Amino acid sequence: MQERIAQLRQQLQLAGHHYHVLDEPLIPDAEYDRLFRELQALEANHPQWITPDSPTQRVGAQPMSSFVTVAHKVPMLSIHTETDISAEGAIQFDNRVRKVLQLSSEDPPLEYVAELKFDGLAISLIYQDRVLVQACTRGDGQTGEDVTHNIRTIGQIPLRLPDAAPPQLEVRGEVYMRRDDFESLNERQRSRIAEGVKNEKTFVNPRNAAAGAVRQLDPKIAAQRPLSFFAYALHFHAPSDAVLSPVEATLNGLQTYGTHHQILMALKQWGFPVSDDCQLVAGAQGLIAYHQQIAQARDRLPFDIDGVVYKVNQISLQARLGMVSREPRWAVAHKYPAQEELTTVQAIEVQVGRTGKLTPVAKLAPVFVGGVTVTNATLHNEDEARRKDVRVGDTVVVRRAGDVIPEVVSVLLDKRDHAAPAFTMPRHCPVCDSPAVREEGEADFRCTGGLFCSAQRKQALLHFAQRRAVEIDDLGEKLVDQLVDAELVKTLPDLYRLTRAQLIGLDRMAEKSANNLLASLEKSKQTTLPRFLYGLGIRHVGEATAKDLARHFGGLQAIINASVDQLLMVNDVGPVVANSLRAFFDQVHNREVVQQLRECGVHWEEFAPGARLDLPLSGHTYVITGSLPTLSREQAQALLEQAGAKVAGSVSKKTTGVVAGEAAGSKLEKAMALGIPVLDEAALLALTRST
Ligand code: IVH
Predict the structure, then answer these.
(1) Per DSSP, what are the bridge partners of residue 341?
(2) How confident is the model at residue 551 (pLDDT cuts 50, 70, 90)?
(3) I want to staple 606 with a disulfide (CB 3.0 to 4.6 A). Which of 55, 125, 486, 555 is the partner?
(4) Alpha-carbon gap, residue 101 to 110, rounded angstroms
């Protein structure tokens, strides 16, 4: 019996590790549940054999009335933070370290471990005889709170360590919440509030939600909050029961790990989640490269980080560096600009897009977030705006991640002091007053005004003029507003009919700018078929589809004449795209626009249908990542496309090859993981030259 219990515990522990930490389930969920229930039943019959490290004991403790304060055996230090967003932070850290170690410029670069700075809360885990016995928060660094009962509910944290681990140790790391888990938690909270459940609230951000869960008095509630963990530090118990940091352990001759990197690898071996994004790097240059690489990868991570952490790798050097004012001199945090800030909503406006899509936009009190000042944030559509229940006057969390348009993440309901009415989508276009309709199965309302709507006309002109379409350099938003409002331009061909006299008649338009615009218009007449097609702004026809269509048909007339069935023969064209193309060219006025543009002199090279289908790289897909030594990304893409290849944005099993340059990140890693060939610039040139 006891043997079976031990066996079940071992099986469940292993399966749990594969499920929670390695993300590669070992056995089906149903099998796990069956084993779990068997163990539960055996333990129910033999309570004397229950041990705290049994997988059944993760949840179970009774609610508590308060937390017990515990003193940390080794203080939980803070790290010096560099907020300088440039590379300076890394250089200054490296300089300081080298100075203290009395290294000269002749000495080789120092070895560092660069890690992510997880945006959660620090937790210390104490293992005795390889069993988790205590977990506490950082608190003020000297004393924290005992939150063992909540931490035990986190599936990623081992309750028991393998025999290879030292029996007594303290592991430190970060408890955090993944962004997707945070979204579903808030979703659940919102429906509870809607159902009228008392004392429920939504959370402002993942860190806040994680902190709330860790400090839950009822572990059953904590168990429902999806928490994750990353380990990043190890401290040893000395024979005397004092816990020693790796540095102190070294001084006491107890050290078994020479480097921080070895510690991370050991933690991983013992079953702790350790981030795959930690890297061993050389010198300030290595730190800078890491800082930049992670800045680019930041938005693709499934969890929030607020910076990176640099640590001197050699434990003996850490010992020599020591501390100043409660901060180790061997580590530093280098922050990124915050991606979320609080601000207030001054108004909610509805904007009209090129295809008539109505987008509710929150007008905000200006706020510096994600490196820029933000005054507008999208609310996406009516459902989203209502789901988040954003109202004028509300205090909201705004998020701007990378180049993504800023969005309102959530409302701080407890800061709402007066009840502005809930947002509703207008049933008429705010610009042209045509009816706005929401088709079945669609999230968006659209203005039915078409090109009668000046907002749609303006957007259509800007779309046509953009760099990736026919590229009319001097035609910006303000000028388009003026041209449309003065009724000088109603359709695309009107652009090419503008005269110098008309332009000079406009407000703030000097002779020179008029000449510049006319020159840009002239220049734009020579274009390519894909750019022209894309520029027409046909719904669902993006740049890649335009290229596929041009390659397949060779010329525009063939596309205009193609039936839905013929369109479906094109690579990557499905029924939605095919029908949208057909509907567009079935409209007489659209065909007229095309005809008139050609009459105005807009032209491109055509070729025989299908002629490009049998190019050397036809049917092959490449991905470009990082910066190449001499070619720009556009040039590399053009080389590949001229040879018939497709260039995609993400790596998949179907990718033929990845062209990688300096600071290539996750795409390169993914290619290597999938065994996809990697090319450098020289190989790309050789490939496209030989084909
Ligand atoms: S090491 C002496 N590594 O940052 C160095 N801290 O210290 C001890 N943090 O509240 C900390 N990610 O919770 C370290 N990879 C990482 C970290 C990290 C996040 C947090 C930690 C602490 C704060 C500042």
Answers:
(1) 398
(2) confident
(3) 555
(4) 10
| pLDDT for res 255 | 52
Which atom of ligand 1 sits closest to the CA of residue 77?
A: 2
- CB of 328 shorter than 6 A to ligand 1: yes
**pLDDT average, residue stretch 589-610:** 88
pLDDT greater than 70 at residue 668: yes
Contacts of 199 (CB under 8 A, 6+ apart): none
Distance of alpha carbon 214 from its chain centroid, rounded?
25
Average pLDDT over residues 272-286: 96
Residues in the chain: 691
Average pLDDT over residues 444-470: 91
DSSP string, 476-541: -HHHHHHHHHTTS-SSHHHHTT--HHHHHTSTT--HHHHHHHHHHHHHHTB--HHHHHHHTT-TT-
Q: For CA atoms 573, 577, 578, 581, give the dihedral sign.
A: negative
Please tell me the distance from the alpha carbon of residue 135 to that of residue 137, in angstroms, as a whole number: 7
Tell which one of 72, 78, 79 to mutate to probe ligand 1, the residue whose CB is within 8 A of the most ligand atoms.
79
Does ligand 1 come within 6 angstroms of the Cβ of 115? yes
CB of 331 closer than 6 angstroms to any ligand 1 atom: yes
Considering all CA atoms of the chain, what is the largest pairwise distance in Å, rounded to the nearest integer? 98
Which residue in 593, 589, 546 sits closest to 571, CA to CA? 546
Cα gap 92→90, rounded to integer Å? 6
- Whole-number Å distance, alpha carbon 369 to ligand 1 midpoint, is 23
- Does 238 score more than 70 pLDDT? no
Per-residue confidence (pLDDT) for residue 609, from 0 to 100: 66
Whether the Cβ atoms of residue 52 and residue 133 lie closer than 8 Å to each other: yes
Which pLDDT value is given to residue 435?
Answer: 92
Residue 30 confidence (pLDDT): 84
Residue 1 has a CB neighbour count (10 Å cut-off) of 9
94 ligand 1 Cβ < 6 A: no
Measured in Å, residue 308 CA sits from the centre of ligand 1 at 9
The 8-class DSSP code of residue 630 comes to S
Q: Decide if 566 contacts 579 (C-beta within 8 A).
A: no
Query: Can you tell me the distance from the alpha carbon of 523 to that of 319, in angstroms, rounded to the nearest whole number?
Result: 66
pTM to 2 decimal places: 0.65
User: Is 611 a residue whose pLDDT tops 70?
Assistant: no
Residue type, 342: L
Residue 245 CA, chain-centre distance (Å), reads: 35
**Cβ of 174 below 6 Å from ligand 1:** yes
Residue from 74, 82, 118, 291 whose mutation best tests the ligand 1 pocket (most atoms within 8 A of CB): 118
CB atoms within 10 A of CB 262: 15
Calpha distance 263→277 (Å, rounded)? 15
Ligand 1 mean position, distance from CA 77 (Å): 8
Task: Identify the burial level of 634 via C-beta atoms within 10 angstroms of its C-beta, where 0-12 means exposed, 13-18 middle and 19 or more buried.
Answer: exposed
Annotated active-site residue in 73, 117, 268, 646: 117
Given a cut of 60, is residue 549 above it in pLDDT? yes
Q: Whose CA is nearest to atom 10 of ligand 1?
A: 122
Q: Residue 117 catalytic?
A: yes
Of 391, 224, 441, 206, which is closest to residue 306 (Cα–Cα)? 206
Task: Tell me which of 232, 260, 276, 294 to substitute to probe ligand 1's pocket, judged by most ligand atoms within 8 Å of the beta carbon.
Answer: 232
Q: What percent of the chain lies above the pLDDT cut of 90?
A: 55
Is the pLDDT at 637 greater than 80? The verdict is yes
Q: How many alpha carbons fall within 13 Å on the CB side of residue 52?
A: 15
DSSP state of 298: G
Residue 545 banded pLDDT, cuts 50, 70, 90 = very high
